[in-house]
Write a structure and sequence with these properties.
membrane; 22-stranded antiparallel β-barrel; cell outer membrane; disordered C terminus; Plug_dom; Beta-barrel_TonB_sf; elongated; 5-stranded mixed β-sheet; Plug_dom_sf
Length: about 850
């Protein structure tokens, strides 16, 4: 495999003499990763060669070597003492970790000093050495890394990587992502499932926390499914899946954490990219512009997108009689279109004022608009007295804006891995969900049909979140580390909803007081944590930790007799992990890891919002302000082995959640003035029992040929759902399969394929049918690899997918079919410009608020 630094190394060996050390100080075997002037994998210092004897005397020559751009020391740079004429070195040494050097015992006279280091242009200075000490001063070396633009780099990361505590999907290496969204990316991530509506599951749990660059974001505050449509795939670098978070993370409850890492500039100078994609279902454009010079780096990007999605659905509901028979009470057919779009942008600044100090400031924001029209027809039933036959013509609009502002200060130390950081973040999300409907008798619509009912609803919800956090890492030795920190999260949530109705359809819309209100919800979480990692032997290590969180909740309504909510509780959340490496710990081989953690998950506004979505008056949905948090015990046993470039990862896991928040459906009778009674299905949420999951996942990655890679994940698990208080129970075996494969041809042409299969999903009161997905992409590199053109096709064998579901309760049985259009073809073009020289970057700290149960898409809750 060729290495990017090989031509530079050869050039340096040919132009810079190899020097022997005459001083007692020896050069280190290699520079340290992440230090200025060095890079991971820097070759060991060459062995000393014999040099001609230099004239001896009492003279001394000193100096300091710095990077011309960063003004930081160039550690272990080579210093050669040359005669005034000629090229044969007389003496030499290397700089220390401060960039300082000293040559002793020199005879007075005129000399030349040649200073060189890998990745820098060599520099020669004339100097006259006296009888005492002579200071050459500061010598600046200029980086020659721009030569990398002329080098062919053949080594690159695999699409899937396994690490001790997470699995990483390198999205930028998968060409089928070009022109897509974050939802398209997540469908290919190991252990993750995304249904056709965009709802996310991790190893069978929809209780998943999605972070962006390791931090919470207002973008996902209302709906994860909608948020994933806003982030273009071309801006995603990788996705991390963490199934057993340690104590330093907030109390994630069941599934784990999905961390979406956006691309960041690590290049000197100015560079960027532009991209444009057009398709049958969605189109987008994105651009990035970055600048980095010395101590300052700027990262910026912006994107816009639009999508179009037609669909149709049907529903049948059967009411159960006391004698065990059933009768059809509702038969619906609907069809409509959805049109949406918006933008996403971010700007980041990082500044390193001194060697051990780092500052960052970032802001990102998004805007999303969605509108749709739908016609819903309720046909006659064998019991026409239950409700009237009618058609509803509805229009809905959803608008959301959000932004995040964050900053951090990080203090590192001379001691490796020791670090202290202070972070702050403010997040704001504001969204409006409005709908308007006109109802007509029978199957006709329009003026001739005679409208007999009108309704309009406005719902404004806000989510404000302020976070302060401090963390400290102290290594006592190479194998013993203490992590500790504290955090405060202050949330201010509100939902102001108004419903106006016209019961005749021919009069004026008037506010419906019983259905209008304002809900306010304040939540403060204070937490401290400690985590201690240590080695029990050379091959066995452990980490133990605990997190203590105190929660205060205050919720209230503006009017009416609805009771508010007030809660205060303190939770102790322990975790422990044990890792064993039977082979050499410094080389990839085999590893075995066992982990236990207890987590708490608080419901977010999606689950709490009491706003009633009555677009379909016979099927309504709303949140529950009285929900309490979930507590989960999670167990995992993980085995990983590396065999000749192939990876195999096997995990067995169990999760047991008490007071589980589950969707609950029931039917009640609604009396309508001057009209027949109607049976209305209510969909809401309750803490209704226990959710237990037991499963096993297998991930493998292999290269059958040097240019062909194949990876895949199989997840099989058993779910048991029980609610003793309601007398409900359901269970079943489920599975998911994900396959990814790519082949690289000659002349910059590559092919990628991925596909997946998800089995039927078991729910407390029913099930959801299985679904499949697949995509293929063909990419051609252009303009000396500065640009690429990619053609992608998604689910091209059939136009729609049926997201079929069934609900079975002691009151009724319901069957529904939701046909979603998923066939798509898109063509994407990307162009990259600017310099390609790199320099090591400091690891930046970020806030991770992952303690709340977030919303799913699909039912209109905010």
């Amino acid at each position: 495999m060729k290495h990017a630094y090989l031509p530079l190394l050869l050039s340096g060996l040919l132009t810079a003499p190899v020097l022997a050390q005459t001083t007692p100080t020896a050069a280190p075997a290699a520079t340290r990763s992440g230090q200025p002037g060095g890079a991971p994998g820097t070759p060991a210092a060459p062995k000393a060669l014999a040099l001609p004897a230099a004239p001896r005397g009492a003279g001394r020559l000193t100096g300091v070597v710095l990077d011309a751009a960063t003004k930081k020391p160039v550690e272990f740079a080579t210093v050669a003492l040359l005669p005034a004429t000629g090229t044969t070195p007389l003496d030499g040494t290397v700089c220390d970790d401060k960039g300082r050097f000293a040559l002793k015992g020199l005879a007075p006279g005129a000399y030349r000093v040649q200073i060189s280091f890998l990745g820098y242009a060599a520099r020669i200075e004339a100097v006259t050495v006296g009888e005492a000490s002579t200071d050459l001063g500061t010598v600046m070396l200029t980086s020659s890394a721009q030569k990398l633009g002329e080098v062919t780099v053949t080594g690159e990361r695999d699409i899937i990587e396994t690490k001790p505590d997470r699995i990483v999907y390198n999205a930028e290496k998968d060409i089928t992502n070009a022109g897509g969204t974050a939802a398209d990316v997540l469908r290919k991530v190991p252990l993750v499932s995304v249904d056709p509506e965009g709802n996310i599951e991790l190893r069978g749990s929809s209780n998943v926390l999605v972070l962006i660059n390791g931090k919470p974001s207002g973008i996902v505050a209302s709906s994860v499914a909608d948020a994933m449509k806003q982030i273009p795939a071309d801006q995603i670098k990788s996705v991390e899946v963490i199934t057993s978070p340690s104590a330093k993370y907030d109390a994630e409850g069941t599934g784990g954490i999905i961390n979406i890492i956006l691309k960041k500039n690590n290049l000197q100078g100015t560079n960027g990219s532009v991209g444009l994609a057009g398709g049958t279902r969605s189109s987008n454009a994105n651009a990035a512009l970055n600048y980095r010079q010395g101590k300052i780096g700027l990262t910026s990007s912006a994107s816009g997108f639009a999508y179009y999605s037609p669909g149709r659905n049907d529903l049948k509901r059967y009411l159960k009689n006391a004698d065990g028979t059933e009768r059809l009470t509702l038969d619906q057919r609907g069809e409509g279109n959805s049109l949406g779009g918006g933008g996403f942008g971010r700007l980041g600044l990082d500044y390193d004022p001194a060697r051990y100090h780092s500052l960052t400031l970032g802001v990102q924001g998004s805007m999303f608009r969605n509108s749709g029209d739908n016609q819903l027809f309720n046909t006659s039933t064998p019991q026409p007295t239950l409700f009237n036959q009618f058609t509803r013509d509805s229009e809905r609009r959803f608008r959301t804006q959000s932004y995040d502002v964050s900053g951090s200060y990080t203090r590192s130390f001379e001691q490796k891995r020791r670090e202290w950081s202070v972070l702050a973040q403010h997040t704001r999300n504001r969204n409006n969900q409005d709908y308007r409907l006109d109802q007509y008798p029978g199957a006709s619509v329009g003026a001739d049909a005679g409208r007999n009912y009108r309704e309009q609803s406005l719902n404004l919800s806000r989510n404000l979140e302020t976070t302060l956090q401090t963390d400290y890492v102290h290594p006592f030795s190479e194998t013993t580390t203490l992590e500790t920190g504290a955090k405060a999260i202050m949330r201010r949530v509100s939902s102001d909803y108004t419903v106006r109705t016209d019961p005749t359809g021919q009069s004026t819309l008037v506010e419906n007081k019983p259905r209008s209100n304002e809900f306010r919800y304040d939540q403060d979480v204070l937490s401290v944590y400690g985590s201690y990692g240590f080695s029990l032997s050379k091959k066995l290590s452990s980490k133990v930790g605990t997190r203590v969180e105190q929660t205060r909740i205050d919720g209230s309504f503006r009017q009416g007799s609805d009771s508010g909510v007030a809660q205060e509780y303190t939770t102790l959340l322990p975790n422990v992990s044990l890792s064993f490496q039977p082979g050499n710990p410094k080389k990839p081989g085999q590893s075995l890891r066992a982990a236990y953690s207890q987590r708490i998950q608080r419901p977010q506004i999606f689950y709490l919002n009491p706003f009633v979505n009555a677009t379909d008056s016979l099927n309504i949905s709303y949140g529950n302000p009285q929900l309490k948090p979930e507590l989960t015990n999670s167990y995992e046993l993980n085995y990983t082995t590396f065999i000749k470039g192939s990876v195999l990862n096997i995990s067995a896991y169990a999760r047991r959640t008490g007071s589980a928040i589950e969707t609950f459906r029931f039917v009640d009778t609604v009396k309508v003035e001057n009209k027949a009674d109607r049976l209305v299905q209510n969909q809401t949420f309750r803490n209704i029992g226990r959710n237990a999951t037991y499963g096993m996942s297998v991930f493998g990655s292999v290269k059958p040929l040097p240019k062909w890679d194949v990876s895949g994940t199989l997840n099989v698990y058993y779910v048991s759902l029980k609610s003793p208080s309601l007398g409900l129970a359901n269970s079943g075996m489920m599975y998911s399969l994900n396959i990814n494969s790519g082949y690289k041809f000659e002349k910059g042409l590559s092919l990628q394929f991925n596909g997946g299969l998800n089995s039927r999903r078991v729910q407390l009161q029913g099930s959801q049918a299985a679904w499949t997905f697949y995509s293929a992409g063909l990419r051609k590199n252009l303009l000396q690899d500065k640009a690429d053109l990619t053609l992608n096709a998604d689910n091209f064998l059939s136009a729609t997918r049926n997201l079929k579901s069934a609900v079975d309760t002691d009151q009724f049985r319901q069957e529904s079919n939701n046909y979603i259009y998923l066939r798509g073809v898109r063509l994407a073009f990307n162009y990259r410009f600017g310099k390609v020289s790199t320099q090591p970057q400091k690891r930046r700290r970020g806030i991770q608020n992952d303690d709340v149960k977030q919303g799913e898409g699909g039912n209109g809750q905010q």
